Amino acid sequence: xxxxxxxxxxxxxxxxxxxxxxxxxxxxxxxxxxxxxxxxxxxxxxxxxxxxxxxxxxxxxxxxxxxxxxxxxxxxxxxxxxxxxxxxxxxxxxxxxxxxxxxxxxxxxxxxxxxxxxxxxx
Length: 122
Description:
- It is built from no helices and eleven strands.
- It has 122 residues and is mostly beta strands.
- The strands form two sheets. Strands 2, 4, 5, 6, 9, 10 and 11 form a seven-stranded mixed β-sheet that branches. The chain has a four-stranded antiparallel β-sheet with strand order 1-3-8-7, with no helix packed on it.
């Protein structure tokens, strides 16, 4: 069975950094695009970042551009999200996703992690 297991979330202060990790098992990770989404309480799930399967081409939501970096290590079947200069507005449950479609729309993704909470305090 395909599993995506996330780690790295937690409680941090404004301006701090976190690195989220998401490891995939059960499929050839290198064949899939990967992405990060987030969802705050009472909000819709929001696209954060995406990275392609072939050349690791990345794209970001405007709200995180310049602060977050998505990367991947196919040998470890892992996608990362480096989050710098964190703001209160970044507080959300963060989900990783993998699949054959390169899209910012959440419904196009086949596999999802369980989510990890990121809380940014003032």
